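Backbone-to-sequence.
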């Protein structure tokens, strides 16, 4: 009896798979991991992405007034004044020379001044090494500030040391450190904010409308094109398929520009309607309903062209004997479509529906080019909101963390939707062996 050898590890096969695995990790897995990472941070333009320093400004004082910082700490920060100490004298020696610093030490060492004006007056006491320029005296006065306000510290240790020398109560140091930090931190506030914002629910509803109607158009019209061209002569069918495939191969900018020519107030529709006394109007952005119709049609024709190609290929794979036998049995075209063609298209319909759903959930380029979410946010879908939040914010402060939180929600919805599709179309049955082979 011959022994059955165990399968050996095939390094050559792994070598062929390695490029595909690298692509999957770099372009599929890594973006998802990075999205989840950023979603739980407060990263933005103001915080940067590589850490931050420590800076207390006047706006921070207003925020601290609502925290546990004591009144004495707030007063010390706002009215710290100017102190003639060794650190300030060292800075003065570097800026104006050691002789000037030595003379000023003899005149005012240890003195405290409540305002910069008083400090400048003290600098005027210099006789042998005068600082004659008013601008230079103002700069010299700032060398003796004993406040940590509006000063940038590179490390937490340096900032805490400055708080100690400023006489700030130690109990408030942690609060001030948290308030002064300008870098990003770990937080769950992005998810909480998405759940509380009314705009989030509007974006979710817009996305549901966009995906549902566009997906129905993509699959339905794609099936119609595939079935109708199947019963045409091969040359005529190829011509029609080529025409309907043009929206997918055209650059998005050029494709949307064609819709501009068709729908704007100076476009083809308004021009033709003008011959019948209809006033020119923007058929794309005039109303929210118009915007949705145009957005669905723009994306629908692109998606339907892909469905048409996939469904046409699947129909051609159906054995011709089945169709011939049905004709012998007296079946008409509709009965062939209902009982033979459509049952054979379950797998292509599953693939097209799942692919188009995931694509529509995350795509926004045609909406961005056509309406940019308008009019008045009517067509602002979830993915476009993520783009506006993270990469194109009118306010100027790009909120990377919040934008990533928007994207993370789409990732979760995409996974759940894929599982539902597999369940609905009975994936195990679709990939199982034919009964004749079992």
């Amino acid at each position: 009896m011959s022994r059955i050898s165990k399968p050996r590890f095939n390094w050559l096969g792994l070598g062929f798979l390695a490029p595909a695995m690298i692509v999957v990790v770099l372009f599929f897995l890594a973006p998802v991991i990075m999205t989840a990472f950023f979603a739980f941070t407060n990263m933005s333009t103001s915080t940067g992405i590589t850490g931050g320093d420590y800076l207390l400004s006047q706006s921070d004082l207003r925020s601290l007034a609502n925290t546990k910082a004591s009144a004495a700490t707030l007063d010390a920060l706002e009215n710290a004044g100017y102190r003639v100490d060794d650190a300030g004298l060292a800075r003065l020696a570097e800026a104006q020379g050691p002789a000037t610093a030595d003379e000023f030490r003899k005149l005012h060492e240890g003195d405290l001044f409540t305002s910069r004006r008083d400090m400048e007056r003290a600098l005027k006491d210099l006789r042998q090494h005068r600082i004659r320029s008013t601008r230079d005296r103002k700069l010299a006065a700032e060398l003796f500030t004993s406040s940590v306000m509006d000063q940038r510290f590179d490390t937490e240790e340096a900032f805490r040391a400055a708080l100690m020398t400023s006489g700030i109560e130690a109990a408030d140091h942690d609060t001030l450190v948290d308030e002064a930090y300008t870098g990003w931190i770990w937080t769950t506030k992005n998810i909480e904010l998405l759940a509380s914002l009314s705009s989030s629910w509007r974006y979710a509803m817009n996305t549901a409308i966009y995906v549902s109607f566009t997906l129905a158009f993509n699959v339905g019209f794609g099936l119609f094109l595939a079935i109708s061209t199947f019963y045409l002569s091969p040359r005529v069918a190829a011509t029609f398929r080529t025409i309907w495939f043009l929206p997918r191969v055209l650059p998005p900018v050029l494709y949307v520009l064609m819709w501009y020519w068709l729908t704007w107030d100076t476009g083809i529709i308004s021009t033709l309607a003008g011959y019948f006394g209809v006033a020119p109007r923007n058929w794309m952005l005039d109303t929210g309903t118009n915007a949705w119709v145009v957005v669905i049609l723009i994306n629908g024709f692109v998606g339907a062209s892909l469905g048409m190609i996939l469904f046409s290929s699947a129909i051609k794979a159906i054995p011709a004997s089945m169709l011939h036998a049905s004709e012998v049995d007296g079946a008409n075209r509709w009965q062939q479509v209902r009982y033979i063609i459509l049952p054979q298209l379950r797998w292509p319909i599953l693939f097209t529906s799942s692919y188009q759903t995931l694509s529509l959930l995350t795509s926004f380029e045609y909406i961005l080019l056509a309406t940019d979410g308008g009019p008045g946010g009517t067509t602002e879908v979830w993915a476009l909101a993520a783009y506006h939040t993270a990469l194109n914010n009118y306010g100027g402060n790009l909120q990377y963390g919040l934008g990533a939180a928007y994207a993370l929600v789409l990732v979760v919805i995409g996974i759940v939707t894929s599982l539902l599709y597999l369940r609905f179309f009975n994936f195990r049955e679709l990939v199982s062996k034919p009964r004749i082979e079992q």
